[in-house]
Design goal:
By secondary structure, the chain is of the alpha/beta class. It is built from 11 helices and 7 strands. 41% of the residues lie in helices and 22% in strands. It is globular and about 50 Å long. The protein starts with 6 loop residues before the first helix and ends with a strand. The chain binds S-adenosylmethionine.
């Protein structure tokens, strides 16, 4: 087994996020459809995973570069683009905190849906986002909202209650879901508040089986949930965690059938005019 010194990378290479991403495709397409992409738009999709939003961007004719810290997700994205014959979409490894391989003022649009929020050192991330976006270009972020009662914020909240405390100096990714933090971070990167707008939008997790089956996918393949179960197991609390999450997934399911899953999750959409 390979080991890595970068815990951020290790977390996302753990398991197989593509299995979770399969439940997020429709909402990814809907977000992209609202971005005003036209043929030739130069798009950076940062923290792109296996291309839930990158592939729809490319289908609209954009010239898309997907960058992600996880090598397995980069490979999966390239496979998906190739299978669709999308020659205008490629994926490569990179870290949102230091995009050294990307030149200044390169992209018309930088998109990061639940991606850059997971990178360490948020001020480095805003500096890099602004640096690689051309003047007059746009940055669009999707960030989960701390304390929100819907699915993902609650999964992360419950999971953290079963996990050891984070290392000193760790800045929670959920801080990206607070408008004041976003304004402060972009302010430090030279972007004034009047160029930033916010909207609350909803993603939907859709799965062709019962909500507890979708939970099983999270338990087996989603790094943060896998870590929470490992910590719970070490403390003899696996059943408690399973029950809390099963209640969450089941009560939040809005599908009329108990054998089909459709769970909404609210997020903060940030648009920055650079
Ligand atoms: C919740 S997933 C979202 C993936 C994708 N944007 C989507 O909508 O399916 C978070 C993604 O951020 C990536 N990520 C985490 N830290 C990163 C970093 N420092 N730089 C680049 N990508 C990162 C992970 O590897 C993972 O693919």
């Amino acid at each position: 087994m390979t080991t890595t010194a970068n815990p951020n990378k290790a977390l996302w290479e753990k398991g197989d996020f593509t299995r979770v991403a399969e439940s997020m495709r429709n909402s990814g397409e809907s977000v992209v459809a609202r971005l005003g992409i036209t043929p030739g738009t130069r798009v950076l999709d940062l923290g792109c995973g296996d291309g839930t939003t990158a592939l729809p961007e490319a289908r609209l004719g954009a010239d898309v570069l997907g960058v992600d810290i996880a090598s397995n997700l980069v490979a999966a994205g390239n496979r998906r683009a190739e299978a669709e014959g999308l020659t205008n979409c490629r994926f490569q490894e990179g870290d949102a905190s230091h995009l050294d391989e990307l030149a200044d003022d390169t992209f018309d649009l930088v998109v990061s849906i639940f991606g850059a929020m997971f990178a360490p050192r948020p001020h480095d991330v805003t500096r890099e986002l602004v640096r690689v976006t051309r003047p007059g270009g746009r940055i669009v972020l999707g960030n989960w909202i701390p304390g929100d009662p819907t699915l993902v914020a609650q999964i992360l909240k419950i999971s953290s209650a079963y996990s050891p405390p984070p290392p000193e100096g760790f800045i929670s990714p959920m801080t990206w879901g607070v408008e004041e933090n976003v304004i402060e971070r972009f302010g430090e990167a030279g972007v004034s508040a009047d160029r930033i707008s916010f909207a609350r939008e909803t993603y939907r997790f859709e799965y062709p089986a019962a909500p507890t089956e979708l939970l099983a996918v999270f338990r087996e393949y989603y790094g943060p949930t896998m870590n929470a179960f490992a910590a719970a197991e070490a403390n003899g609390r696996t059943d408690d965690l399973q029950k809390e999450l099963a209640d969450l997934f089941t009560t939040q399911n809005t599908s009329p059938s108990a054998e089909i899953t459709s769970i909404p999750a609210r997020f903060l959409q940030v648009t920055v005019n650079v």
